Fas apoptotic inhibitory molecule 1
Amino acid sequence: MASGDDSPIFEDDESPPYSLEKMTDLVAVWEVALSDGVHKIEFEHGTTSGKRVVYVDGKEEIRKEWMFKLVGKETFCVGAAKTKATISIDPVRAFAYEYTLEINGKSLKKYMENRSKTTSTWVLHLDSEDFRVVLEKDTMDVWCNGKKMETAGEFVDDGTETHFNIGNHDCYIKAVSSGKRKEGIIHSLIVDNREIPEILK
């Protein structure tokens, strides 16, 4: 049983690279958007066997058998930047448990709210392929489909431009002041001289 905004998401339309039949104790599934992509975290908790198994993107990260203490925490890393994640197992009532996910010490909801303030994300289709571009506003690092891009920064009259390439396509992220204190800096992705709309969070 999971509760709150950190509750898992179950998706029937995706076929994982492993058999769900073997995952008889699957109790929670979360999707976490990081700079290098969206990661799927799955948790098995065998309340009779004491088993705990954590999968990240279908790969087993933690397996513990015969745990006599059924509550506690499991900590592991997610993504290319090795972001710290912790699953907490808490009792709700007799033989019922609540599973919550924390990312970098924050609840998943708080982490995602903070992340929406510190990143900008665009999705575009080029040369018959989908691309997900993420700007980390605090470091100005640019990620594309899970890879950190080589960039070159340039000062221009009305702000800055961070240049990079996707295949043979010239891209840059333009940063200009909104002129309003609450809005701060506005970031726009330009690909082949065409502005790409940002994903709304």
In short: The longest strand covers residues 83-93. Residues 9-21 have pLDDT under 50 and may be disordered. The chain has one helix and 17 strands. Helices lie at 108-118.
